[in-house]
Amino acid sequence: MILETERLRLRPLTVDDFDAYARLVGDADVMRYIGDGRPLTREEAWRHLALLVGHWQLRRIGMWGVEERASCELVGRIGFFEPEGWPGFELGWLIARSHQGRGLATEGAQVALDLAFLALGRRDVISVIHPENAASIRVAERLGERFERSATVGGRPASIYRIDRATWRASRPPDASDVPWVGSRVRRAPASRSAAAATPAGGADDAEIPVMGLDHVYLTVSDLPRSIAFYDPIMRALGFRKGTAPIGGDPHVHYFNPRLQVSLRPARGRPARHDPYAPGLHHLCLRLEGPDEVDAAVRRLQALGVAATAPALYPEYAPDYYATFFEDPDGLRLELVAMRSRRLASRARWAELVAFENPFSQLDDPDR
Fold this sequence. Notes:
CATH architecture of the largest domain: 3-Layer(aba) Sandwich
Strand order of the largest sheet: 5-4-3-2-1-9
Order of helices and strands: EEHHEEEHEHEEHEHEHEEEEHEEEH
Shape: elongated
CATH topology of the largest domain: Aminopeptidase
CATH class of the largest domain: Alpha Beta
Strand content: 25-35%
Largest sheet: 6 strands, antiparallel
CATH superfamily of the largest domain: Gcn5-related N-acetyltransferase (GNAT)
Radius of gyration: 25 Å
Structural class: alpha+beta
Number of helices: 9
Oligomer: single chain
Number of domains: 2
């Protein structure tokens, strides 16, 4: 996975970066507050580079090399670190002395932080900072992190700064993208040679065209006023807004949030009760952040008189499939499901899912 900002490219570290990386971690000023506070020898730099590359293999996430887009020069590292015994899922940064003071650490760390909450499903992120490292503390605070506690990490004093998902979300601009991996800010890593060989020739016309999400769903209902009375309190509780613009002279109701629109329109003729096994829509499923949100939604629905099932795991669908079910007045099955590990994995590991059919089966630890 490659992340891009206006000035930076965060991309995987490779053996070709060794000389530049050895210079970075061999600078006494840069390393003053890192590790034991001393610069690394070339041999130590090699082992540390191998550690960072290995972290990606074990955790499927880690530190990126920070490349300045204008010069293609490696100017630092930014990313995530969580070895065994670490105090949490850490976002860290290290910028070469020649490029400090330009806001690069904040710029790169911000897109990584967005990815942690949007694509990796993290509930919180920490940064482990030496108490005297004022520059890094300023970066953490600009990201929205706040001092949580003092600790001893790796034998040295450290300040733990932390941000949770709610605080991060509240600090985002209203027009911020909920899919930062789409567009210029985040792009896929180059495919392997074998994957490239399997790709049809033909240039841009054969390139994948990414779908950004489901735009809208139209539901035809037998009794529009009855359905409005059913859906209004539910969609309000789920954070939707409502529009009532008619289309083609027919009354419509449009429930929408920043990601999805669900519209109701009246049926024509005398429709039968919804049959999920007739051609057409089988059911409508909305995804929530996690099991806690599913539990909260069920409490709200049941308080509204909706016959929602008790939330439960459904391992026949997936090991972590946690959901509730209910029906609308026409018998359409509605479902609320918690974000699943497969969805998170597909976001975090999209660059590895090269095959069209059953791509997870080609990975060394496929999810159901």
